[in-house]
Amino acid sequence: MAAANIAGMSDGLRDRSAELRERRSGTSPRRAPLNWLAIFVAAVAAVGGMTGSGGLTEAAPAARSGPAAFLVFTSDRDGDADVYAATPDGTRVAALTRNKAPESGVVLSPTGGSLALWRAFSSTILLSSDGRSERQVGPGEPSSFSPDGSLLSWARERDLGDPYHAVLTPVGGGQSRVLGLGGPGQFSRDGRLLEFSGEDEFGFFDLASGRRRVLLGEDDLESLDYIAWSPSWDRLALLTHGADEPPYDQELLVYDVVAGQKRSLARGDFFGMRWVGAEQIAFGRTISRYEGRVQQIGLVGAADSVEQILAEGDIGTAYWSPRGTYVAYLQDQGSATSLAIEDVETRLVQTIEPDASSVEDMAWSPSGDRLAVSTRRQDGADVTLFDPSGAVAPVRLAGQYPRVYYLSWSPDEATLAFNGGGRIFVASVDGTDSRRVMDAGSSRIVGWMNGTLPAEAPAAGPSPRPETENGSELRSRGRVLEIAADGSWSAALLENSRIDCDHVIAWKPGARPVRFGVSAPCEFGSRRDWLYGLSVAGTKLGWSSFYCGMSCYSDRASADALKPDTYESFEDEYDLQQRPPRPLPPRETRRGVRMSLRAGTIRLSRSGHVIRKIRPPGNLADAELEVAGLFYAFNLKRGTFPGRVRFIPFDRLLRG
Model pTM? Predict the structure, then answer.
């Protein structure tokens, strides 16, 4: 029987059982574990953006005193995911792991000094914060550290499909302890309890007595959508559903763990729930009105079921400050979308941005004194910091970013880290400085580790380049599929390689190649089934991508060689029956010279007489004759850079 998607947490949603269930049943391939807390935070932040508003004169607040910390993130710039660390100012980047096995499921010790990871989707590894020592803990994936950092919980799985068992391992060394059946979750704040979830059970282990207590069984989990521990771990907030189709009929309950009793608090179609303090639960809810369906944001008392509605209308997800003092939300007001911050106690609402239709992400600082907001704009993205009280002027962070999401504050609130178009950036919150800490690969923030980055941690080194050029030849790690040229500019469609996904590149001999799209390995769903139809007109490029899912369709993209990394695309054709063909090799005449391709050889002729034959050392892919000269592409059978595009100036063509 399939269990509901559950696992406990204190300030958000974690959902691990769905993945474990799929893997047991063999319905999904083995893959990296998901950080469900991060996914929940990112999901509730996936809304539109804004720009800063002025009118205030006070200086930005200074950084708070807090524990020193450094940033930990993963990147697949070398072809597989490794773990990296960076100082808050981004001036030092260290490679904590360097191997050919993918690392995922990274968990940081709350006290610093060590972290755990899932290597090759098979083994739990304990790693020192300098990356110089590691210990294989056992077969399975890591879950959490105890609050004092002395214990690591992990889910042991001897063979794929076997039930998970919760295991505790002393970080400093010693015998591991098998607690019992179920995948472990988080520890209680005092470290006495450890939650677990299984296919049809949810509960906790009492680590002092060794008792395994089941709180929810098979019938409970069947209809469960959400579960969250209260801060004191004596109650659970539960959200259950009735109908599986909209309009959803959900019931919010509180479960007294000590008394073993459940009590209904509210009903409706809920979203974005969390505990606010020990006695209230924040919620978002969609309800029906005469004029249609609207959203509410509010609080409900866990003891008395009294509701307090803070906002109602066409509202997006709420972002609650850590202490629940403020709530930020987007509200559609007909012609515009505004971003508002409401003081929960006074009910005062501050509209900090009247036109917030382009908000990408929001994140409160640990103290709740500032709200970071990222916004899209036509040529990139901005990050702006707001004071919820309205007493301090907004601060726009320095830097140019292609796109910004997953904002992460340092514990001392002096630095904001974020993902910008697959790259990791760090920026000082006074708006004076920002830096990109990784220039290749697809990167993901893990979090901030307490302590300073050890001096012994090995430097990351430069990123491998997907393409190189030497003035007359472009070399790529991926095979060349097709080229096009106009004047002295050429472009190429390049196939994916170990460190890069299929993409388009523009090249002018003697200049650095210009690529469009992030340099990173293909992720699931990111690789096109077919790139074709490349064209060049001056510096303007165009190409098509063919995709197949439930149906097959193509996109047409356009770009400018003078504007790297950016391109626009739109749906061109839908419900295609077959993959479009690649264009036939061209027959072109330039300056009285005619070019043709035959049997892997380029033939150049004038007045009907062949004046030169060029046979490349690899398989000929394409060729273009322009007034500037000949561009031709070929692919070697082996080598680091098998894809080649060569250029021969016109005067050299005639000399033979």
Answer: 0.81
